[in-house]
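Fold Annotation — chain and its backbone

Encoding — discrete vocabulary of local shapes
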Amino acid sequence: MKKLNKAEQSAKVDADKEAGEKAIDGAKDADGINQALNDGKAKIDSDHVPGKSVADQKETAKANLDGEATKVKGEIDADNTLTSAEKAQQKNNVDSVKATDQAKIDAATNADDINAAYDQGVKDIDAQHVPGKSVADQKEAAKANLDGEATKVKNDIANDDTLTKDEKAEQSAKVDADKEAGEKAIDGAKDADGINQALNDGKAKIDSDHVPGKSVADQKETAKANLDGEATKVKGEIDADNTLTSAEKAQQKNNVDSVKATDQAKIDAATNADDINAAYDQGVKDIDAQHVKKRINAGKPKKKFTPRRIYMVKGFYRYSSTSFSKKNRLQGYKQHKRPNAVMFTIVGETKSKHGLKRYEVYQIVSKKEGLFRVDHKKWGYITAKPSYMRPLYYSKNVHKVRVIGKGLRVYKDIKLSKYVKSYKRGTVLKVKAVKRLGTTYRLQLSDGRYVSANKNLVRVENTPRRVYMVKGFYRYSSTSFSKKNRLQGYKQHKRPNAVMFTIVGETKSKHGLKRYEVYQIVSKKEGLFRVDHKKWGYITAKPSYMRPLYYSKNVHKVRVIGKGLRVYKDIKLSKYVKSYKRGTVLKVKAVKRLGTTYRLQLSDGRYVGANKNLVKIFKPSK
């Protein structure tokens, strides 16, 4: 019997004894006393109610522990924060503590000990279910693990000398793609097992993305063997060239062997796949260049063809044949903007075997500052696509030019034979006329002297316009608005602190987007500004980013918004009189134009600048 039940029954005995004693005290005679005594004893005897047998209680307690174990193991199975291995271990732990606590029940000798052993057994069984970290936390940990694996593998790829730069980029891209796929799989997992499976699958896929190339030694041997093959092929072409003499063939074949030996030595000195490939590619070019076919009358323009001069606006190759194959490349040229654009004289037109138009050319190279010459050694064929080239000379509609070359030589005569002097880069010159001389053009300056119309020496100067900016933007070193070409970033500033520019030219990016070539206008001192030629560059031409810097009409009253406004006697603003403070309201008699700028004539006949960073139209409140 439980300790609690014993106390309860004993309390009943005490209560029934007290009731019996009261009944005896209340009896009137001997019969009443005996009756109260017998009733009291019968009631007291009935208060003792024995419990189930100790053996039965043990069986019940052990059966209940079996039920608790079954329930907890079910909860373990349903816990998605645990892996299968963790679930199996925890369920084994449940069975182990259950067996221990059932043995303690068997060893108990009374109801209280049985109950105590049972209660401890329930606690022990419940304690074996230990949930894992939340599914969300496990996912984050798994993704961090996957990211670490991806970083390690990408580092291994980057340091793998057996791979080329392109192969490294390709394999690294696969790692990134597989990492992303692995993260998606982890996010889609429902439980710990799914998370671990997605993590292991992702790591295995990422690890497999790093595929080392052949050893550096093997790549060197292959490259050198391929150069041997290229040399053999080219020497065979030399032998079969009926335009060459035996002596010329022998010399060219010796040249092939010489450059092959040099480039094979460069292959041996290479330390990685990229350097090996670069040395090999250069070796192929060098070997192919040793076969020089004879050309009849190569230095003379073809009949009925008028030579033209052009400059290139895109990257391209010069070839030894109208067949534009890799082996026929003589020289590659990167895109260079003026004044460093590549120049050619076109001496002929022809077509490839597929009917594609080609130009036969000689390259025009720099002789010395401001002078050029045709290099007859740099002969070949180039593409005839119009998008790759522009006419080298200005031929009409030129009124003002800026020197963009290192120097511009000035001559007395149109043939440019009587040198006078040179102008430095940045000098602006007025042009009286454009004159043609044979297939070239000259610019006659306002003083009657002549300069070349070559676009690598001068650029047409457009009439400058002045603007202030109303949005944040960047100034760039190129018409290609990329991050690497940024010169300076500007935040949006309202007047009187808006950023100001002089627009000195218009151009377009390679994608056809309009750009402005500019110089920034900066503060000189209170109320005065100057053009800072060091702050040159390109800005967007979108109208929404800018406004005209000067008021040009319909101005009757203005308020000074700058730090100060200087007043002058004359329209050129050269004869200073006084200054007005910020906030002063002035009456305007007229707006006057002076060249490309504007002035405000005040009611007293004096002049101030019409710059919108200095004044603002005043509209009195009603």
Summary: DSSP finds eleven helices and 28 strands in the chain. The two ends are 103 Å apart (CA to CA).
